[in-house]
Design goal:
Blueprint lengths: L2 H25 L14 H5 L1 H17 L2 H4 L7 H15 L11 H4 L7 H17 L4 H11 L3 H6 L2
The structure holds protoporphyrin IX containing FE (HEM).
Amino acid sequence: MSFSRKHDRTRRSLIAFTFIAVAFSLTGCAYQSVTQSTNTTLYERLGGQNTIDTVVENLLYRIADDPEVVVFFTNTNIDLFAASLASQLCDVSNGPCRYEGPPMDRAHQHMGLTDVHFNRLVEHLDAAMQEEGIALGARNELLGRLAPMYEDVMRLQ
Ligand code: HEM
């Protein structure tokens, strides 16, 4: 196996770990289950569309307050971004929406994103969910469903 393939695998594992570790470290609760098996959808456990919209709005304030992240949004139509992200979070959590925006590689191409930016955004999203009262299990599950998008988001950097 070449060094770079091994390196890539290590990098992917680190990113996946970061998603899980962020939620744990913010709560200090290392023993709670990462996922929660109930009959309800993740969308319902997140609090439905109203809570998802509130989380996205909360995230926007956090982005605006973070000089290292806000620079990427200089030419972005924030209302369209917020609506698109909300529909993606609804879709990915098995809610009644279908994300119809561009694929993640095209949406983020040539931005110059690094793992630092990526992890920062994950931390902001987790903090926004926490502030809006979403339980640890649901937060971790959503982050777990977003984690595989890392590859696509970073593909065309
Ligand atoms: C799993 C991680 C991520 C997800 C799920 C995600 C999701 C999205 C979605 C749904 C859109 C809207 C696409 C559209 O409708 O045009 C978008 C756009 C955008 N994202 Fe991300 N994103 C992620 C990571 C990041 C990171 C790490 C950054 C920078 C720190 C970032 C910055 C942006 C910017 C600036 C836009 C707007 C691009 C434009 O103006 O057209 N994203 N993202």
